[in-house]
Amino acid sequence: MSNSKFGISFNPMLCFFISCVPLIFLSESFTQRTLQLCEGVLKLLSIWFCEKFSKFLVSRFQKSRIPLSFVQIPMTLVLKKMALCSTRVENVEENERISLLDLPELTLECIFERLSPAGLCSMAGVCSSLRERCTSDHLWEIHLKQKWGKVIGDTAYQEWQCQVASRNGPSLSGQDKKKGLFESLLSSRPFSWITPKLEKSCKVRTTLPVDSIMAWYLSLESGNFWFPAQVYNRENGHIGFMLSCYDALLCYNSETDNFHARYSSHGRRTLEENIGWDRLRAPPVNTPPFVLHVSDCLPDLIPGDYIEIQWRRNKEFPYGWWYGHVDHLEPCDGNETLCRCHYSDTVVLKFNQYSSESRWRRTLINRKDHREEGNEVDGFYGGIRKLYKEEEIARWKHFWPAQVLEQ
């Protein structure tokens, strides 16, 4: 409809919204007084006008022209529509609630992989579905490698499996009357940083296998599992053990973030405390401490190679690994072009941490027929490992003594 006098074209829909503006501003002016009522009305009006009444207007406009007074709508129709839309608003709000489990599988995996061990334990206490996901081996393998990968190896895992097999206890289920391993680990004092977050999780009935990676991690973390590893410079850097690495059973203390160690010697166990992470390593070979290591690198040894060699004071002692390097034979001047030391059956091993007068400064071994060699005075030399990785060599040099050992 147009007004020829003013040259203005009127749109019925525009007129409708213009008529509604005062009502909207009026309702907003009372929001502070009647907040709850206005909030419900505004929701209903927005849905009703957009979804229902707009369709009604469009159909009416198509059939006939409607004067500006069309906004005078019977209030009975409005009340009916408002009552109908009230129920629909509630349903829409309920349908928009998204659970964590509704997320895509890949998204869930990304979230779980970024959770800390404490976060995974807390999440596992929410419901049985989340507990099943948060206790899966592949998630806990990540944390196991990050924190424990450099100090535990195959030997520690085998020892863990032996302990699990020897228990033969009940499964870790909420139906068990006694505490299982999982609950007992979480209730232990060194692991108290996780316990408060799992108080509610005990209500969830599920099963955690005793041989799961999570159970192993918690056992290490709580100090309930003494695992085999090796310690550099045992007994707090005793001069008799400088630049050596000995097998021990270790227990973690989460309160101090260090370890206790038990060494075996002469039939008695020696205990050492407050051992830092930097002094530990996983055994590089699966050779027990009282067994001679089979050397497979002897044909390849040349002057300048860095090695570890087994050594013990007498046959009642376990072997320790000692750091040294391959040196030139006495007639050789060290010239790389003229050196023929690598063709000789005799290999010179040198330990520069000792003074030139020390009887442990140098030793000779037979390249082709090397077995345990030595005596009760100088000790016994066993198997040899060649060090190929710069990281291993750097760790040994990190423990180099401040002064030459006069032994």
Automatic annotation (TrEMBL):
Domain F-box positions: 97-143
The record's section on InterPro entries has: F-box-like_dom_sf, F-box_dom
| Coiled-coil blocks | none
Q: Which domain of life is it from?
A: Eukaryota
> What Gene3D superfamilies does its record include?
1.20.1280.50
SMART domains, per database record: FBOX
List the Pfam families hit by this protein, alphabetically: F-box
The protein's matches in PANTHER family, at most eight in alphabetical order, are given as:
ESTS AU081301(E20138)
Name the record gives this protein: F-box domain-containing protein
What organism, scientifically named, is this protein from?
Cannabis sativa (Hemp)
